[in-house]
Amino acid sequence: MIIQNPSSDPLSDVLALAGLKAACSVRLRAGGQWALRFQPIELKFNVVLRGECWLCMDGLPPRHLCAGDCFVVSRTPFVLASAPQIPAVNASEVFALSGSSAAYGVGDDVELLGGSVSLISPGAADLLDLLPPAIVIHAGSGGASSFAWLLDELDREWQSTQAGAYAMCNDLLRLIFVHALRHHITTADIADLAWLGGLRDPDIASVMRAVHGAPEKPWRLADMAEIASMSRSSFAALFKARVGQSPVEYATCWRMKVAASRLSRGDTSVAAVAASLGYLSDAAFGVAFRRVHGVSPGQYRRAFQP
């Protein structure tokens, strides 16, 4: 049997550099008049198992959530409540008393399941910056049931004592995040997607896959335009409109992100990383790296050494 390597996938490549680590899994039951304020450090996933509530965020209209609805919040304080404009209590105070499963208010009208994730690599910030404050996947959409199932499995693994449970949590969180990103890519206004918008255009996506598959190649505009089967001027204009960067700038930035990831491991010299990415001199590599990351490769590598 011959197993072929899959073609490069830009979103998977970026996720691999970002890294995901399970932070917690929590369950909330609430009733009556109630409101809880959450302050996610990075990413928080939630599904309404039953009942209904409101998701409130500063500067955005309240969003009504029903059973089966799921949402992702990125680094933005939010309030879950039985109705908008109810004074909120910090959720941390409620969960501090009851651990990973809390009850609040009077009655048992609504139940939510949530999970939190930390992105542990320096490349994570680039990914988080692409996300809106909240992504809501309503129960009527095709992806909500899968999202809810994944969160339920996450809760089960987080509470279990089985061997490999923590690894399972990390893998489930990765799936949840990819699921949310896919939903965002396919439903958001393309102007709001930054470089993710390029993945919606087949011609641009083919070039992005090629760039990610060969970061060591000194990509020229002509090379990329040929892959897209377009003239250089038309391709450059379309790429800039979809991705927000020129094609050569995007290729260079990706090359330097790969370099940063390899340097952060601490087991490879600057010269070896430079050579692995096609640079004939450490000086040229250093200039390109500093232009993207603001520090020299040596300084960046030392920052990750114990």
From TrEMBL:
Cite the entry's keywords alphabetically: DNA-binding, Transcription, Transcription regulation
> Which SUPFAM superfamilies does this entry report, sorted A to Z?
Homeodomain-like (SSF46689)
Cited InterPro entries: AraC_lig, AraC_XylS_family_regulators, Homeodomain-like_sf, HTH_AraC, HTH_AraC-typ_CS
**Localisation per UniProt entry:** Cytoplasm
The HTH araC/xylS-type domain covers 205-303
Q: Which GO terms describe its molecular function?
A: DNA-binding transcription factor activity; sequence-specific DNA binding
Q: Which GO terms describe its biological process?
A: positive regulation of metabolic process
- List the SMART domains: HTH_ARAC
Which Pfam families does the record match to this protein? Cupin_6, HTH_18
- Can you name a GO cellular component term? cytoplasm
UniProt function note = Regulatory protein of the TOL plasmid xyl operons. XylS activates the xylXYZLTEGFJQKIH operon required for the degradation of toluene, m-xylene and p-xylene.
Q: What is this protein called?
A: Transcriptional regulator, AraC family
Q: Which organism is it from?
A: Pseudomonas abietaniphila
Taxonomic classification, please? Bacteria, Pseudomonadati, Pseudomonadota, Gammaproteobacteria, Pseudomonadales
